[in-house]
Description:
TIM Barrel, 2 domains
Amino acid sequence: MIARVVQAPMANNQPAALAAAASNAGALGSLPGAGLSADELRARIAEVRALTDRPFAVNLFAPPYLDEDALAVVLEARPAVFSFTFGVVDAKPFREAGVVVYGTATTAAEADVLRDAGVDAVVAQGAEAGGHRGSFLDGFPLVPLAELVPAISGVPVIAAGGVVTRDDARAALELGAAGVQAGTAFLFTHECERPPAHLAALRTYDTVVTDAYTGRPMRAARDEVLQALIDGPPPLPFPQQRRVSAERGPVFMGGTGARRAREQTVAELVAELSA
């Protein structure tokens, strides 16, 4: 299945119930598994299944950050979709188990690697996207979504980055995308339960891509905390830098479309993006 609207997996920024709410509204909800133990992930999958009988995705980080025990849990649980970012995961055992596989690319070259690895669809993460960059080849390029989507060939594309309204979704589909993925827009839904400070930061500050927070490039609000980290010493490798950053205070991830996002229910947002 290639979903028309996907709720982006947002590790440490969403409850498991958000995935169920998105699926119940007609999108493909996503459960982030990165950072969870195998037992924790198994429990979160069970929580989502108790709240919806519709398809949903489970997302993990790829090698070298992959937790093999968590990967085994996903294969055992057989969600409708398995998605991954930061690299390449062998798609074959999942496809043989009837699980659809999505990989994340930030360049056409990365999409070619994922296509050749057998994924069913590529999530094209444009420069506008919030959160961590999914780059895994050379460097951490920032290719605008309008350039990235048409540059990918031979595999269905799900466009991600700056998608918060029906016009954004329509523009992505007109570029040739089979569907869209939204993350920042879902941060503003009531069911995501983000603290008011997070939404206020995304409304107040411009966003910037930096590795100062976790040691790996990600897009977040350039508030005083993040600016101090940027001005500080070079970051430790990912994910060790996050422990250093935690001493400074929270940093609020989000994409370039945050100021256009509205506080609303998940059902209202899915209806908007699907219109």
